[in-house]
Amino acid sequence: MTTVTTELTVDDTVQMRMWHRVSQFLFREARLLDEWRLREWYDEMLTDDVRYRVPATDVRGGPVDALALVDDDAARLRQRIEQLLNGEVWCENPRSRTNRIISNVEILTDQGSHLEVTANLVVYRFGHGRSDAYVGKYRSELVVEEESFRIRRRLVVLDHETLYDHGKLSIIL
Prior knowledge:
The chain is of the alpha+beta class. Helices cover 26% and strands 41% of the residues. It contains three helices and six strands. Strands 2-1-6-5-4-3 form a six-stranded mixed β-sheet. A hairpin with a 2-residue loop joins β5 (130-145) and β6 (148-158).
């Protein structure tokens, strides 16, 4: 009879705890966005020098070189949030209902002061007689802040070749 045992090393345990913390952070972020708690998301989860990008879906050569559907710094992101919450964005009045699924969370690098993290996402959006699914990947730089994190960089790379079936990208992914 063969007995298989799995013993975690100290390094494995530390990595598992960090992965769990990152996953819980991303899950909380998804909940805040789905509940349209955008100000809370902005104030509690982002750095003052945040950069939020969604590259165009039809440009070959990778997301770094692509034109962007969204390319917001902190001030522009705050403005977008206020417009969404104040009903100024006509296609989000009334607000869409969203449901996000975050998976395949992976810590790519740990620089001590910040982490490079990737995760898959699906954002389902319902409203105005439509339902859409946005499928893609997050690439995030998370600044370590005590027992939590803040997002300094967020790149959302959509897997779609076009957004024609989805209409406008009026929500925060």
